[in-house]
From TrEMBL:
Gene3D superfamilies: dinb family like domain. InterPro entries: DinB/YfiT-like (IPR034660), DUF1993 (IPR018531). This is DUF1993 family protein. Signal peptide: none annotated. It comes from the Bacteria. It holds the Pfam family DUF1993.
Length: 169
């Protein structure tokens, strides 16, 4: 049996967004328990030239919603990238999950061959839908989930590999 584009994308996105939500909740609890101003965690970076935690969460959201929108040929919801609290990041994740749950497998029909061109800055690349998902989206998506995890861990939040893996359905 072969996997569909829907099966490779939406369930993986939903699972990782749920994990990210849990990681953020643990980060917020850690800040409260240790008297850390939430802005310190939200603005934390792994390196000076990397984006802060808030931007990592925004990129996870954007990667998932834009992938689904491009593969299905529909519009993605617009988010302003102005989240400044744990609650706002949780709302963004919830809104992303709601969008992902609003699409169905039939909307992905033919998406593996759909031509998708990305252009931002000097980068421009045309993919088939399958190559877009497998070689661009999934690595990018997991990079930002992992970086969010790493930022929280580096800030002393007591999380480990099982937190990153989440609960198996």
């Amino acid at each position: 049996m072969s996997l569909t584009m829907f099966q490779v994308s939406v369930p993986a996105f939903l699972r990782a967004l749920n994990v990210l939500s849990t990681l953020l909740a643990k980060g917020e609890e850690h800040a409260a328990a240790h008297g850390i101003i939430p802005d310190v965690l939200l603005g934390a970076r792994l390196a000076e030239d990397m984006m802060p935690l808030t931007a990592q969460v925004q990129r996870v959201s954007d990667t998932a919603k834009f992938c689904v929108a491009r593969l299905c040929g529909i519009d993605a919801p617009k988010f302003d990238d102005d989240e400044a609290s744990f609650q706002q990041l949780q709302e963004r994740i919830a809104n992303t999950v709601a969008f992902l749950k609003s699409v169905n497998e039939k909307q992905f029909a033919g998406s593996e061959a759909r031509e998708i061109t990305l252009t931002f800055g000097p980068f421009s690349q045309t993919f088939t839908g399958q190559d877009y998902l497998l070689t661009f989206v999934l690595p990018n998506f997991y990079f930002h989930v992992t970086t969010a995890y790493d930022i929280l861990r580096a800030q002393g939040v007591k999380i480990g590999k099982l937190d990153y893996l989440g609960k198996y359905a």
